[in-house]
Amino acid sequence: MASSHWWANFEIYQKYAIVVGVGAIASFTAYLAYLQKQKMDASNRDEGFVDLAKDEEPTERKVLMLGLDGAGKSSLLQGLSSERGDNRQAPQATHGSNVLCLDKENPPLTIWEIGGAESMRKYWNNFVQDTCILLYVVDACDELRLPESYLELHKLLGDDRLKGVPIIIIANKQDIEGALSPLQAVHSMGLDNTSPNERKVLSIGTSAPPDAPFGGINDLKQLLIKLAS
Q1: Do 139 and 172 form a contact (C-beta atoms < 8 A)?
Q2: Which of 42, 43, 91, 167 is the most buried (most CB within 10 A)?
Q3: Taking the model in full, what pTM does it have?
Q4: Binding site members for Mg(2+)
Q5: Could you please report the per-residue DSSP string of 171-217?
Q6: What are the chain's domains?
Q7: Measuring CA to CA, how many Å separate 18 from each of 74, 171, 182, 221?
Q8: How many CB atoms lie within 10 A of CB 14?
Q9: Residue from 29, 28, 59, 64 nearest 41 by CA
Q10: pLDDT (tens digit, 9 = 90+) per residue, 188-208?
Q11: What is the layout of strands, in order, in the sheet containing 61-67?
Q12: Which CA distances in Å does 136 have to 69, 79, 88, 172?
């Protein structure tokens, strides 16, 4: 997707808007444009070009959603984009990035979902700047890939820009029998002994089956708002 198309969508916020970028280059180009807009907004506030009433509005918070391919990130983003789970389309694998703008929340949230395929993971660190909350989605039914997910998460947490950033471990696919509980997912990611002084680690269980209502989505949204406030 061309950055100009992305920018037009980004400027015209609806209550819930999903903007899709295909491929690493397109995704990162869109992300750079997003960062530039953030800098311009901050500069305008510093220079006094923003009226006081507008300046008192809550500042937008950036949320980063990561996880291996197949963990269900796109389904969760789709759930967060709607107040109900009906009339939704089957999500496609993310080959670049999806952006969800929740500008009616308080504070406004911009959620960046980055593809989890092996070819995309090397770009994850390019998107961590100014992250307020990290969402890490785990397929709670795929125990064979838990070690792989663990390694990718801890590789990411080595980035100093994520120091102290709260993490929500999402144990997805709770509708499937035998799924790990949220606490078990935290343990499998090696975060159960993390000191609260180091960072907040929270967990939640979700589900997004194609033929049933979303599970845990509203709780996740409220948790995001609480952490971002």
Answers
A1: yes
A2: 167
A3: 0.78
A4: 74, 94
A5: EE-TTSTTPPPHHHHHHHTT-TT--TTT--EEEEE-B--TTS--BSH
A6: 3-228 (3.40.50.300)
A7: 11, 23, 27, 16
A8: 10
A9: 59
A10: 999 999 998 899 999 999 997
A11: 17-21, 97-102, 109-114, 61-67, 133-139, 167-172, 201-205
A12: 12, 16, 23, 10
Average pLDDT for residues 44-71, to the nearest whole number? 70
Provide the annotated binding site: 67-74, 94, 116, 172-175
pLDDT tens-digit series, residues 134-158 = 999 999 999 999 999 999 999 999 9
Residue with token string 């311009």: 40
Angle at the Cα of 160 from the Cα atoms of 182 and 169, rounded to 5 degrees:
10
Q: Which residues are annotated as a binding site for GTP?
A: 67-74, 116, 172-175
Among candidate residues 118, 130, 104, the one with its CA nearest the CA of residue 17: 104
Q: Who wins on pLDDT, 14 or 58? A: 58
Structure tokens at 97: 């990035």
Lowest mean pLDDT among 37-51, 154-168, 201-215: 37-51
Place of tokens 């789970």: 85
Cα–Cα distances in angstroms (integers) from residue 47 to residues 36, 38, 41, 42, 57, in the given order: 16, 14, 10, 9, 17
Q: How many CB atoms lie within 10 A of CB 62?
A: 19
